[in-house]
Fold this sequence. Notes:
Layout: H1 5-23, H2 32-55, H3 62-84, H4 88-105, H5 114-132, H6 143-162, H7 173-195, H8 202-225, H9 231-249
Helix pairs in contact: 1-2, 1-5, 2-3, 2-4, 3-4, 4-5, 5-6, 6-7, 6-9, 7-8, 7-9, 8-9
Amino acid sequence: xxxxxxxxxxxxxxxxxxxxxxxxxxxxxxxxxxxxxxxxxxxxxxxxxxxxxxxxxxxxxxxxxxxxxxxxxxxxxxxxxxxxxxxxxxxxxxxxxxxxxxxxxxxxxxxxxxxxxxxxxxxxxxxxxxxxxxxxxxxxxxxxxxxxxxxxxxxxxxxxxxxxxxxxxxxxxxxxxxxxxxxxxxxxxxxxxxxxxxxxxxxxxxxxxxxxxxxxxxxxxxxxxxxxxxxxxxxxxxxxxxxxxxxxxx
Length: 250
């Protein structure tokens, strides 16, 4: 399970999202006790998701599957109990997030792009942590369309790479690449429009949009040079950069 790239990417994104969400929580000085509780909840959540995903594999022995499902249930229950020490709302947000992550992680992890899992983590982890720290802001909701755009753009770039000349498709390889680039530009435009009223955050928002535009320009240049293996990673990095800058701006 841990040897699979989508799982490794998911764990890395989860750890980074958790730490950044705690550090960047607005107007909050997080005490050590909250750090310990949040990190413990994170460990329990990761264990629950991994155990459930492992139990979902077809080649699992029935007794092993039962033990893994039991372990996943216990870990999830302990995590929810710890969330209740913050608030009921925190427990609800956490439960929704874990359910979504588990549903994605448990379905064909070998063939699935890690972007779907990454997108859900980047939305749910800050929402859960900031609700626990009473630092919730409606600006977090902008992460939903941005992450959806990231998933769609990633899919277009992967489709462009995988498209065979002998296969009939509604979009050509060039069309898929253009759609992926356009998605990044739309995400950059969204954060610029949303960040205009917040003068104190406009610099960070502008940095996020400018960085994304630069990465798209590099991606287009790489396409002209035939270096298409770079495209997915550059587009994903551009969307991730927009997300990080937006969270920092909040």
